[in-house]
Every structure is written in structure tokens, then in C-alpha cells.
Design goal:
single chain, about 140 residues, GTP Cyclohydrolase I, domain 2, alpha+beta, 4-stranded antiparallel beta sheet
Amino acid sequence: MTKAPVIEPLKIADAAAGLRHVFVRDLVLACNIGVHQHEKGQPQRVRINLDLGVWEGNGLHGDRLENVVCYEDIVTRVRAVTADGHVNLAETLAERIAALCLQDPTCRSVRVRVEKLDVFEDASSVGVEIERFARTQPRSRG
């Protein structure tokens, strides 16, 4: 009997590197996505999961929202991306979402999973997961 490979849990929070893990789980949105004719003009449900590695700077956030990555802002921006017209590929949507997350100067890495939920009756989802890194050095917020 062959054992299925074990997928190691993602470690993003890293005290030694000064990283905090900010995440969004199971955001389900209607999205115009797909390459097939029957998918065009018909919104489909997609599930989006995000994992951000955020530079903590001096580690002091002072209990102030402006000193951290706001997941409400991230969700609002992801909603805008999914509402911004038709996209052919889940890969393209994932890249767009990764790019918007990396616009934050403290975001060092992002892992994006995009899943189409209603493609096959006998599969809960199909999709793609990507990981991208910031190209610049981290900057503090203030």
C-alpha cells in the first residue's frame, strides 16, 4: 500500500526573521472566470485563501490599525479584483491577487490559493496555489 505524500504546514510567522502571519481563509466570491464558452457570462464561485508574511519592523504596533496590515482592506481589494471583468485562468486571478497584496510595503511574501468550486460534481474544488515574494526591502509604516 502506497502512502499519500504529507503536505507540510506552511510556516510564515517567523520571530527570527521578524515576520508575522496575516491570513484570510475561505473567502467565497462570484467571479467571471474560465476559458470555455459555457463559463463566459456566467459567474462561478471561487474560494480564495491568502497567507501573507508581513515584516513586523520594530514589533511595536501600539494597538493601532495603521501599524499593521488590515485584512479588511485586503478582502475589499480582492473583491474588487474578482469583480473587474472576465479572467480566463485561475492562475491569472492568483497573480493579480498576489500583486495587490505585495503592494503593501511591509508584505514580504504571499501565498494565494484560488479554487473553482463548481467545475466537477465529484470534486469539491479545482484550482491553483502560488507563492510570490516582494522584490524590495521592507519599510516600516510610519
